[in-house]
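Page 37, continued from 36.
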């Protein structure tokens, strides 16, 4: 009989160990790490930029930008005066714990108390790899449609918070917010959902209060 071995499990098991180690190491160093996932163009960089500006008096936020190529996002964050680093995954569609550790090590000065990893734009692969982050956050933007929880359930299941963005564009899309919330809650009853617009600022204070509260809770855990 031909022998078949399943390799995915070995990869994810070893990544899970690295991720747990990184999480504990970051706790000792006082760095609260959040993994931000979504489809390309849903508004990750825009949301992070606004959050950094809004919370500038309260906390130093740094960003690790993961992309296949370019450094446009890291440059945008850098222009705000925040710490940023660009990671290139050379075609890989996710970030694992080893890559995240390399990113943290490269954030040289590390005055950031909260660090976001802006994961590769993709609703599938990033959800499968534990990055070592303390919280997972995802974005679903209005133009993507309210059926995405049905098509890409894993990311919604893995996330602690969901930002439904581009609410300012609601008049132009037939996005059913109640249906989206119902579908997401069916997959993950404890997920926190924040409808926001990073453009107008709508709903941003609820998201930012949640972020600060999570940080406080984590510091004192
Ligand atoms: N109308 C509107 N456009 C937005 C909002 N957030 C982001 N965008 C736009 O969506 C596009 C992609 O945003 P970006 O932050 O680069 O998305 P990323 O690829 O997920 O990082 C840009 O043209 C943004 O200006 C929003 O809340 N409302
Ligand atoms: Mg981006």
């Amino acid at each position: 009989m031909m022998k078949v071995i399943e390799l995915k499990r070995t990869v994810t098991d070893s990544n899970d160990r690295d991720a747990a180690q990184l999480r504990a190491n970051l706790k000792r160093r006082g760095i609260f790490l959040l993994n931000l996932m979504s489809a390309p163009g849903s508004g990750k960089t825009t949301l992070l930029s606004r959050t950094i500006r809004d919370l500038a008096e309260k906390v130093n936020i740094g960003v690790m930008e993961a992309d296949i190529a370019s450094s446009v996002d890291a440059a945008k964050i850098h222009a705000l005066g925040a710490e940023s680093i660009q990671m290139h995954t050379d075609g890989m569609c996710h970030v694992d714990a080893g890559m995240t550790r390399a990113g943290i090590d490269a954030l040289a000065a590390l005055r950031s108390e909260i660090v976001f990893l802006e994961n590769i734009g993709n609703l599938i692969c990033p959800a499968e790899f534990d990055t070592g982050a303390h919280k997972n956050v995802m974005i679903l933007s209005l133009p993507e449609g309210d059926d995405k929880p049905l098509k890409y359930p894993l990311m919604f299941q893995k996330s602690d918070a969901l930002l439904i963005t581009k609410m300012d564009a609601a008049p132009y899309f037939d996005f059913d917010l109640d249906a989206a919330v119902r579908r997401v809650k069916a997959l993950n009853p404890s997920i926190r959902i924040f409808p926001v617009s990073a453009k107008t600022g709508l709903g941003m204070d609820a998201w930012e209060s949640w972020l600060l509260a999570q940080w406080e809770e984590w510091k004192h855990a």
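The first strand starts at residue 32 and ends at 37. Flag for discussion at group meeting. The chain has a mean pLDDT of 95.
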